[in-house]
Amino acid sequence: MSTTPPKNLFERFLHSQSSSSIVLILATLTAVIWANSPWSEIYQKLSHLDIGTYFNGKQYHLSLDHWVKDGLMAIFFFVVGLEIKREILIGELSSIQKAALPVMAALGGAIVPALLYFVFNPSGPAASGWGISMATDIAFALGLLALFGKRVPIGLKVFLTALAIVDDLIAVLVIALFYTDQINVPALIVGAFLLTFLSLVIRNQIRRPVCTFLLIFGVWLCVFLSGIHATIAGVLLAMVVPVRATIEPKKFFNILHQHKTWLKDSKITRQSMVADKKQRQAIEEIYLAAESMIPAGIHLEEHLHPIQAFLILPLFALFAAGVVIDSNTLAGFPSSVSIGIMAGLLVGKQVGIFLFSLLIVKSGITELPPGVTWGQVWGVSLLGGIGFTMSIFIDELAFTDTAMIEEAKIAIFIASILAGIFGYLVLQLTLPKK
To answer: What CATH superfamily classification does 17-68+95-180+322-430 receive?
Structure first.
């Protein structure tokens, strides 16, 4: 019999993110090769394949790549929202001392790259791309860190994870506040009403799957129609899902104790529980009490991670990373847009994360995690420059010009690869040899 203890939630999360980075790389390479192959026309047709329905004489449809970016990516942001809520309530962001270091590091990693981008693009259409270099791709960053195995102090893994989660929160706020052109207030009001009603349904443990699904879809649709990017609905929905047990342990044990003895004395069998309604009710009460002891947020986060890591993000990469690399795309490369993005990810990220971490530690508010050195923080700061998924996502919101979008993607690819290489080399030198 195996004596290996089961992995805890953090270890499972880390494993999922690191292994999924391989799938993400394969999806990205597939997109780039396919978009530049003799079958590129099939790729373009598939991306722009219309999927929708007719209702009341009107057509409602989106292209396949938009269904992925506006629909499936809402699930990705839902998981991000659950991670943020969990960390704030019971995790590494649950106290000022715990949160100070990753929050300040993430702020530095957002502010400095944005300012650097503005240095190269102070005005005009290009100026709207300031948010592209603010994001960190947690899958790739943790994937590279995982290559060092047990050489990595657990404090460094926790620091990078918490930093990336705060980074995601900043990215969500940036998308909601700055990359929304026009707000449809009535749709937003209806969405807020549906979200409030959904919160009451969840809080009162009303188990009606069809009703819950309709409310979830209604919130997503209202956010989509409001003008705010539809993926923000995922984060809003996550905020109403509990990440702690909805029943006190004492009450759970009382229910368990109350029915256990009676069920045993009633000589329950698989046949008797079918005919005996009282036995079935007792079993159902135990089942519902046990279900209430499992936090819905943790349960959903655990089960949705493989879906978003191995299906949603690779599909997003497949439809978003298909850059056509030809003389037209490379004609103006590098321009101020690509230089601003690369400077932000390669220089801004490492300077911002490292400098703000140094300042908050020197202030005495917090300290470095046990076993973590400043050299290792520098290495992690470089890994923060791996933007990729979130950077590409913001790129497609920031620009309307196709050439600018494509050039920005090339800059993201180059900067992310270099940030990964430099981060790996620094960590190779600064982590313990054994």
So the answer is: Na+/H+ antiporter like domain (1.20.1530.10)
